[in-house]
Amino acid sequence: MVFATSRIHTSFFQLFTDLFNYYNGQDINLLDSLDKFFSTLLQKMFELLNEDYEFNPTYLNCVSEIMDNLKPFGDAPNKLSHQVKRAFIAARTFTQGLAVGRGVIDDVTKFGKEGSCLSALMKMRYCPMCQGQGHKILKPCHNYCMNVMKGCLALQADLATHWEKYLDSLLKVGDRLQGPFNFESVVQPIGLKISEAIMAFQENSVAMTQKIFKGCGTPARKGRKKRDATKRQTFDGGLPIIPTAPKNRPINLEQMVKEIRHKLKKQKAFWEELPHMICQKKNMAEDKKEINKCWNGRAQARYLPEVMKDGRLAQNNNPEVDIDLKKPTTNFDTQILQLKLITNKLELAYNGLDVDSIDVADGDVGSGSGSGSGWMDPGSGSNQNPDISFPTPSGPVRTRRPPKNRTPQPPHRDRSTPPLWGPDPTYVVPKPTASAPCTMVGNAFLVLLATLTVRVVL
After folding, report:
1. Contacts (Cβ under 8 Å, ≥6 apart) of 88
2. In whole angstroms, what is the distance from residue 189 CA to residue 219 CA?
3. Which ranges in 153-294 belong to alpha helices (H)?
């Protein structure tokens, strides 16, 4: 059979364009897109199998309308549509979830450097020297450091519950991507599944044609014309050649997702453990066992006050950092809202339900102060951070270091004296780490889809 492949290229190209655009955040109904593809494919196949008849647009629309009753492609459209929808929703929401997490981290780590916190840090570092203890190079007592950090990171500790729920939902979607919603297992065999659908139609083409003629009427025959063999290509069985992706592929999305899930599991208690992580550093505080040979804020002696619990409300009696409980925390509350919203979207994606894309223009992602966008804008410096690189589905990730924060400078000291034990009071909060697979995964989805699109359409 002579098959004009150029006549269906537009349909294939439009389908994969819709898949690309959906993944990149456009409001596209995947089921409608796939229905339209199979409807157009049915029209093209029907025309090619009945070249002796004249079909106008009205007649072809009738052919599409009775498609659901005839099921010319068998169950292939329904199965493929269901699989594609679940996989694409999970993949897009997963990468958007990572992007939101990045935005929240960027904004939350800016909180806590108010005057009371900086004063407590300055006192913890420089008071031993002011009291004539500089020659002993005393480090703060561990519990002293803990109370300072509990006060400075009080807001971050309040994020812990929402952060854990967010990561749980993100991990669940990642588990789906490694199992029934596996992106690769859905995207790679699309060409083969469409070929099987075409074959099912061809095998029943005579019966299907009779049913269509009965439902839409018998069209008029057209005059025979010589077929231009130079514009057509012959294939065995009359089916279009629809290649699949190569087996030896350079991208392994499943492995990437696996590595990301492994790293994310370690970050579930990050905000609660953050004060401990900081005070365990040798240049920040004395070892826990050295309870008497340390600086307690007044002298070399044991630090007596108890260590405060986590959270802002628990700092009311913090002896080291004054917390104004009446001060509004609008920007911080915005970050909690972002985590709640993306957690809800991730739960919907986990259950295979429709999920609205995150629109940066509508302020769906980022802080109330405009300093933390969920998507990474390569041209914006507000969301760039060298310590963590979450992916963006819309392009290569570019990071740059933010400008150094300006903080009160310590008093001048004689360079001949021994160096002080600790860092500048402009402490850097360590952030959840994300390696190369986390940076690459968003674009890897697109690369796989692009590769298959080129092979199918061209």
Report:
1. 19, 22, 23, 30, 183
2. 36
3. 154-158, 160-178, 183-187, 190-203, 205-216, 253-265, 270-279
| Alpha-carbon span 342 to 385, nearest angstrom | 21
Assigned token pair, 37: 């593809």
Give the 3-state secondary structure of residue 143. helix
Cα distances (Å, whole numbers) of residue 125 to 134, 237, 295, 306, 420: 10, 81, 9, 20, 8
Pair 402, 107: CB distance under 8 Å = no
3-state SS assignment for residue 233: strand
The answer to whether 95 and 393 have CB atoms below 8 angstroms apart is: yes
* 381 band by pLDDT with thresholds 50, 70 and 90: very low
How far is the first Cα of the chain from the last one, in angstroms, to the nearest whole number?
21
Q: What pLDDT is attached to residue 25? A: 87
Cα 354 from Cα 345, distance rounded (Å): 9
Output the six-digit token pair for 435. 């390696």
Identify which has the larger pLDDT, 248 or 17.
Answer: 17
Q: Which of these, 19, 10, 458, lies nearest to 243 by C-alpha position? A: 458
Stronger pLDDT, 397 or 343, i.e. the higher one: 343
Least confident stretch, 48-57, 83-92, 219-228, 270-279: 219-228
50-69: average pLDDT: 89
Give the percent of the chain with pLDDT over 70. Answer: 68
Query: Is residue 262 predicted with pLDDT exceeding 50?
Result: yes
Q: Residue 23, class by beta-carbon neighbours within 10 Å (0-12 exposed, 13-18 middle, 19+ buried)?
A: buried
- Scored b (16 or more CB within 10 A) or e, 193-215 reads bbbbbbbbbbebbeebeeebeee
